Amino acid sequence: MDKIYHLNLYNYLLEIKYRLLYVTISIITCIIICYIYKYKLLYILTSINIDYRTEFVYTQITDLFVVYLLIVIYITIALATTLLYFNLYLYIKPALYVSESLTVRNFTIFLILVLLIGLILNSMYVIPLLINYFYTFEKEQALTDLFLQLQLKDYLMFYINANIMIFLLYLSPIIMYSVLTYVNLTVISVKKYRKYIYILIILSMSFILPPDLYLQVIGNFVAIAITEIVIYIYIITITYN
């Protein structure tokens, strides 16, 4: 019996070893490919806002190297997170029930769709809208002439940070629904704590979005609408189950 137990444990550890090896090889390959195509990647990340981009500048001799390094790290972390998630799912899948496996699979498909749609919305609308908002300060009348001379490293850091914060906003409904399901709140409890959820949303949006009334109203409206949809879906789920 002990021999069989040790053999199974060895097989599990061996599978973990090989999966980590696959992930490591994939990450190294991604780093090499991203570095080879760093110029094209930089062009893609900067050309989404071509209307307001004249020329990027850098003031230190190492800035350009840091920019390319940030691009490689940003894309590699995104790929590594995805690979780790899928390998973890494939590792624990044999131990799951059929219903649990279907739940995880549906959750994964929904998560991929949210991230892909979020990436398109960020690149085409959200981030250009944010840049447009900050760009308007140059156009406003002031006592002195103000001209935007954007540093490449600053723009890239803004792009990465904005993407991360907005993706967290996109993922918040999934996280909220998962928490509600895990805690297993009743309908009365959900209605009781709803006002505290709204307060948390308003405080979070005030930190994420720029201090503009229009953006704050739109952002809070969208976040609260998404929250209401999630709560409504959760109530329907626990009612019919």
UniProtKB/TrEMBL annotation:
InterPro entries xref list: TatC
UniProt-recorded name of the protein: Sec-independent protein translocase component TatC
Membrane topology: Multi-pass membrane protein
Cellular component terms per the entry's GO annotation: TAT protein transport complex
Subcellular location(s) of the protein: Membrane
GO terms under biological process: intracellular protein transmembrane transport; protein transport by the Tat complex
GO molecular function: proton motive force dependent protein transmembrane transporter activity
Family: Belongs to the TatC family.
The keyword Membrane appears for this protein: yes
UniProt keyword terms in alphabetical order: Membrane, Mitochondrion, Transmembrane, Transmembrane helix
Primary localization: membrane
Spans traversing the lipid bilayer: 20-45, 65-86, 107-135, 155-184, 196-215, 221-240
A family per Pfam: TatC
GN (gene name): tatC
PANTHER family (UniProt xref): SEC-INDEPENDENT PROTEIN TRANSLOCASE PROTEIN TATC, SEC-INDEPENDENT PROTEIN TRANSLOCASE PROTEIN TATC, CHLOROPLASTIC-RELATED
